[in-house]
Design goal:
Elements lengths: L4 E2 L9 H6 L10 H18 L5 E5 L2 H12 L5 E6 L2 H12 L3 E6 L8 H10 L5 E5 L1 E2 L4 E2 L2 H9 L4 E5 L18 E5 L10 E6 L1 H8 L10 H8 L10 H17 L1 H21 L14 E5 L6 H12 L1 E2 L1 E2 L8 E5 L6 H17 L8 H12 L2
Parallel strand pairs: 1-12, 3-4, 3-5, 5-8, 8-9
Antiparallel strand pairs: 2-10, 6-7, 9-10, 11-14, 13-14
Helix pairs in contact: 2-9, 3-4, 5-6, 10-13, 11-12, 12-13
The protein binds pyridoxal-5'-phosphate (PLP).
Amino acid sequence: MKKKYLLTPGPTPLPPEVLLSQAQPIIHHRTPDFQEIFKEVCEGLKVIFQTANDCFVLTSSGTGAMEAAVVNLASKGDTVLTVQGGKFGERWAEIAKAYGINAEVIDVEWGQAVDPKEIEKKLKANPKIKAVFTTLCETSTGVTTDIQAIGKIAKGAQAALVVDAISGLGAIDMKTDAWGVDICVSGSQKGLMLPPGLAFMSVSKKAWGIIDGNKAAAYYFNLKAAKKALDKFDTAFTPAITLVIALKEALKIMRKDGLENIFTRHKRLAVATRTAMKALGLELLSVDAASDAVTAVRVPEGIDGEKLVKTMRDQYGVTIAGGQAQLKGKIFRIAHMGFIEELDIIAGICCLEKVLTQMGYKFELGAGVRAAEEVFLQGE
Ligand SMILES: *Cc1c(COP(=O)(O)O)cnc(C)c1O
């Protein structure tokens, strides 16, 4: 038996209250009991999304809400704009293509954030673009996008602004309404401290205007049907009842903590992690736009990145994430989102130091742990 530490950018660990809330007899979803819970979570989500608009709960992983956003806003032959600077940004164009929707793509170097002016240029050049698809926190590179700046641009355009905040929501600031975000998409297993299986999305009035004029091909992810049900605090299909109950518990914890405290906590964990990596002589993938939800670190010369991640997991029970696609073996990623706390990060850094030492990387043992502790002490 080995104690396990989950430090991946989804799934993330769960607070005991959230875990236990799921160990209850199943109730039926077309009942006043469930409606009351569903009403509470839909209202609670608005607080986390920082929106006055409806928030939908979908039974799928986060990608389901991404697909729902694409197919409800655009149809075959329409044009949309997508931004891709990593694996998840690429997903927007992949979904569009699967439905015969033309995706104009802004390619961003992995590890960098998009320059909002690029989006402005594209929107000016093609006023027919129905929606712009972006990513708040690009989990594959640990980069945060300046959604506020993009929102200012999108406000003056016809196009709806859609943000994938699957890993960002509940970890870093996401002012859906104030920043002019029309559809914000999230998922359960990252900052929201839930098991995988639920997706969430907010929909603005501007987005509804586009959705109403769209001949959507969706059936399961039809937002008009979802809205009709939501107006009665109901769902079009059987919801993941147990996960909705867990969501109620997670939202209770988050609302008690308060959004500002949650963001401050994530920032402190991120700063500690980044400082620790530098103290170990390691280089961050993102210099200017490093996310406070997950840190991507370059694997040092001569070290086998995949072996590093595997050894930490198999020998010591500490699961971090490796790199994806073109970054496979080149980076590792330490998550600091949701129910990941200071001592988890210390454990992760400690284990990283141990395995790096065993693999022959030269540095001052304890330098990373010390640097992180110093950051944490400043926050006391
Ligand atoms: C995890 C993640 C996704 C995919 O979510 P699934 O729940 O695996 O479908 C999409 N975008 C971002 C930014 C993510 O972090």
